[in-house]
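For concreteness, we quote verbatim a single protein encoded this way:
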Amino acid sequence: MMSLFPRDIISTAEAIIRDFTAAGLMLSTAESCTGGLIAGALTEISGSSAVVDRGFVTYTNTAKIEMLGVHPETLQRFGAVSEETARQMVHGALFRSRADIAVAVTGIAGPGGGTAEKPVGLVHLAAKSRAGALVHRKMFYGDIGRSEVRLATVRTALEMIVSLR
């Protein structure tokens, strides 16, 4: 079967769908720089409707506020690409869905948009379970190209989902 995603991403997504189905767990995603690719990788797998509750694509700050409940003050003080924003995004995705586990990503895929403080390739990811576990990762993928930053982010997000299972 041909896929839109590289084999390693599909293998991880298959394992998540299999394991979450067996455990009766649901998940949701909150995505900015990946624009829905995490949800897309998961829903590439047959049977994913038993696991994937919903995905929030919140590319703008307004969407983050309206759809996920990110505080405007957080965005003003720390910016969209920050640990604080990723944490609020994942909290919103978890509690505005029926998911047991949620993952959120916000970053700068490039080629433009980077600064000295927040360079192209910087991504903040957060994963949270209803049981209370929360994991944050700050990744510096570098200026490796927009598609590669986005795919690297999908890989990391899927790994984080596995780690909370």
